[in-house]
From TrEMBL:
GO process terms (BP): transmembrane transport
InterPro entries: ABC_transporter_permease, MetI-like, MetI-like_sf
Domain of life from the UniProt record: Bacteria
ABC transmembrane type-1 domain ranges (all copies): 73-286
Protein's organism: Hoeflea phototrophica (strain DSM 17068 / NCIMB 14078 / DFL-43)
Family stated for the protein in its record: Belongs to the binding-protein-dependent transport system permease family.
Pfam families given in the database record: BPD_transp_1
UniProt-recorded name of the protein: ABC-type sugar transport system, permease component
PANTHER family: ABC TRANSPORTER PERMEASE PROTEIN
Gene3D superfamilies assigned to the protein according to its UniProt record, in alphabetical order: MetI-like (1.10.3720.10)
Membrane topology: Multi-pass membrane protein
GO-annotated cellular components: plasma membrane
Length: 297
């Protein structure tokens, strides 16, 4: 009987499985194949074109001895930590405010979400102008009479990453707000009524009841934010081009510069592999706790 059922289950929803074949083939060839190809040639001395002249871990030793790469990793960690924290906090607070059934909710939601429709290049150019000390925020405030006011983060190597962070938050926070708002709208109204009857303050209801119930939404949001942080590139190019000096260098820009400008494919492949390894170090424990832990439990 089981032998008869297995072929039946195999051919169940056959049209859907056939329709999924191109995507499966693309994932295997393009993503998995491209990843293995990149890792393979990261151990070679490839320059303008790939060549199979193996040098072992020399590319990785050269990579981690380069101050530009170390600075890019530090910048990405700084940007990533603050981006995760502020995106979640601001996005959730905005969603909680809109969830109060305020007037003109659709208008406010559209205004807050609109920046997400812009490309990072447009956002970077706009904020490059706004943060320019000659005709941006600093010039406007000084025109009001505060001559000593200084606000030029893109020209200060110590705080340039915070200038990038402002632009990134302006563009992405609205989208995070919509994700959080969708999660809040999925909470049963009876929970709110029970909390009011028991006299639980609103902030405690959010902190100890609502947020734990929104765990899947937070996990999805974290994955989306983390993916945007790892591939941070166009915002940096549009605002600072990695400057002043190398103060706003990021790994994605390092990879691009070495592969297409410095014509050093081996070094670019090594940097790409390290970015992949960083993602796997975070992804594998999360996947095990999220899926493997449940099975064992």
């Amino acid at each position: 009987m089981s032998q008869v059922q297995r072929p039946t289950q195999l051919f169940r929803n056959l049209s859907s499985k056939i329709a999924a074949l191109p995507m499966i083939f693309t994932a295997l060839v393009v993503f998995v194949g491209g990843t293995l190809w990149t890792v393979f040639y990261s151990f070679t001395n490839s320059k303008l074109l790939p060549r199979e002249k193996f040098v072992g871990f020399d590319q990785y030793e050269r990579l981690w001895s380069t101050s530009r790469w170390v600075i890019s990793i530090e910048n990405l960690m700084l940007y990533g930590v603050f981006s995760l924290i502020f995106s979640l906090v601001i996005g959730f607070c905005l969603a909680a405010l809109l969830d109060q059934k305020i007037r003109f909710e659709d208008t406010f939601r559209t205004i807050l979400l609109y920046p997400f429709a812009l490309s990072f290049i447009v956002t970077g150019l706009v904020w490059q102008w706004l943060l320019n000390p000659q005709f941006g925020v600093q010039a406007i405030v000084r025109g009001w009479g505060w001559e000593s006011f200084t606000f030029d983060p893109l020209y200060n190597p110590d705080i340039v990453m915070f200038g990038l962070l402002i632009a990134g938050l302006w563009q992405g926070t609205g989208f995070i707000m919509c994700l959080m708002l969708a999660g809040l709208r999925g909470i049963d109204e009876d929970i709110w009524k029970a909390a009011r009857v028991d006299g639980i303050p609103m902030w405690k209801t959010y902190l100890f009841i609502i947020i734990p119930m929104m765990r899947p939404v937070f996990i999805t949001t974290l994955v989306i934010i983390a993916s945007g942080i790892v591939k941070l590139y166009d915002l940096v190019v549009a605002q600072t081009s990695g400057g002043p000096g190398n103060a706003s260098e990021v790994p994605a820009k390092y990879v691009y510069d070495y592969m297409f400008q410095a014509q050093n494919l081996g070094q670019g492949f090594a940097a790409s592999t390290m970015m992949l390894l960083t993602v796997l170090i975070v992804l594998i424990p999360w996947a095990y706790l999220e899926f493997g832990g449940k099975k064992h439990g």
